[in-house]
Amino acid sequence: MREENNKAIYLPGLNGIRAIAAISVIISHIGIHLDYFGFKNIRAYSLADYGVTMFFALSGFLITYLILIEKRLYQKINIRQFYIRRVLRIWPLYFFYMFITLVILLLLKFNVDKNLIYYIFMIPNYPFAITTATGLASTVMFLGHYWSVGVEEQFYAFWPWIMNKTKNLLLISISLFIGFIFVKALLSIFHANVIVITFFHYTRFGCLALGGIFAFLYVNDSKLIQILKMKIFEIIAWSVFVLVAFNLYGLYNIIEHEVFAFFTLIIIVNQISNPKRVISLENRVFDYLGKISYGLYIYNPLMIYLVSLVMKNIIKVESEMNLVIIYMVTTISIIFVAHLSYFYFEKPFLRLKSRFTTIESRSSKI
Fold first, then answer.
1. I need a labelling partner for 251 at 20 to 30 A (CA). Which of 50, 166, 269, 339 fits?
2. In the structure, how many helices (H) and strands (E) does the chain have?
3. In this structure, are residues 297 and 87 in contact, taking their beta carbons and an 8 Å threshold?
4. What is the distance between the alpha carbons of residues 315 and 248, in angstroms, rounded to a whole number?
5. CA atoms lying within 13 Å on the CB side of residue 142
6. At what angle do helices 205-219 and 45-74 cross, to 10 degrees?
7. Between the CA of residue 118 and those of 89, 109, 124, 221, what are the distances in Å?
8. 8 A C-beta contact, residue 206 and residue 258
9. β-bridge mates for residue 362, sequence order
10. Backbone angles phi, psi at 9, to 5 degrees
11. Strand duo 9-10 + 361-362: pairing
12. Which residues does residue 10 pair with via DSSP β-bridges, in sequence order?
């Protein structure tokens, strides 16, 4: 097993992964909401969908890795501190943005759906599944993307408990991964209710568990990890990223996101441990965007709408140049708001969170 101490663990390139995932979501969301600006939408759901899968893979890997190190050093996991850290990192911005959104919806006289209760109790993936499966407007406007935050919180409601009790984490992780895929396969084979199938499709526990598997293999210096650091595998992984960027990737089966998570994890292990990696994500731009990536993800739907209220009266002719302007202005606006949020709203909670941190990680030297 790798030797670690209680000093901050340096993991390069992870902010780069966060940056790529967040920008992918923003680009996709702008494209599918160009109608706000009076233009024709660009249907590019997959870019956001796979961007979120990157977040899941990274989250499953990083949190499992840190818990493994904590358990090795202290023989157990401080469950209480784990959940305090989660609450301080996720909940303040989650509920702050929800409050702002509800105020704006009321001011604009939009209907606030009764399904708001699901967002309050961190089950936003349920109304999202209804909307995606049936086309019925079940999500609260500008909160549809909360489905992914709900999935993560639901996964971590039980994951640290399992890790704290089990002596064979690899077996448990593989069992969860295979079991979840098996359930999805059964639902598909027996033509279960479309809402149920959609719910399980977006409940990406398989991707999170796969991240946990990679973390276990990495911490224990598995030969498989060494093999996956061969240049050919890294090139293949980056090639899949390119296919996704151009909307050319899509297996269209029950494991397409688990497969993409696998390639994402190849990139992750190469970033953090391969000095000869093909592409390095360690730079100031990615570091900055990665730090504010939670805000980039959370604020983007509302910001796209608010920017459109201004720009649709200025840019009225649909052209390639005007589309470029819309993407640039909207993206910069989202970055600006996420910057303010990180440094003036989230930072105090992050400082408080550090008091409950057992194993600290740093994703950049910059």
1. 269
2. 17, 2
3. no
4. 30
5. 25
6. 40
7. 20, 21, 5, 41
8. yes
9. 10
10. -90, 130
11. parallel
12. 362
User: What's the sign of the alpha-carbon dihedral 149, 151, 156, 158?
Assistant: positive
Q: Which residues lie below 8 Å from residue 2, measured CB to CB, with a gap of 6+?
A: 218, 219, 220, 221
Q: What is the CA radius of gyration of the chain?
A: 20
Strand, coil or helix: 223: helix
Q: Provide the token pair at 14.
A: 């992870």
Q: Which two tokens stand for residue 54?
A: 């990157």
Tokens of 65: 């890795």
pLDDT one-digit tens code per residue, 226-259: 999 999 999 999 999 999 888 877 766 789 999 9
| CA neighbor of 145 nearest in space, from 261, 25, 303, 59 | 25
Q: Which two tokens stand for residue 84?
A: 């305090």
Burial class (CB in 10 A: 0-12, 13-18, 19+), 320: exposed
Q: What is the pLDDT of residue 93?
A: 98
Integer angstrom CA distances of residue 49 from 45, 85, 286, 326: 6, 26, 20, 22
**Residue pLDDT, tens place only, 316-356:** 888 999 999 999 999 999 999 999 999 999 999 999 999 99
10: which 2 tokens? 């340096």
Which structure tokens are listed for 3?
């030797």
Structure token pair of residue 256: 């397409």
CA 55 from centre of chain: 3
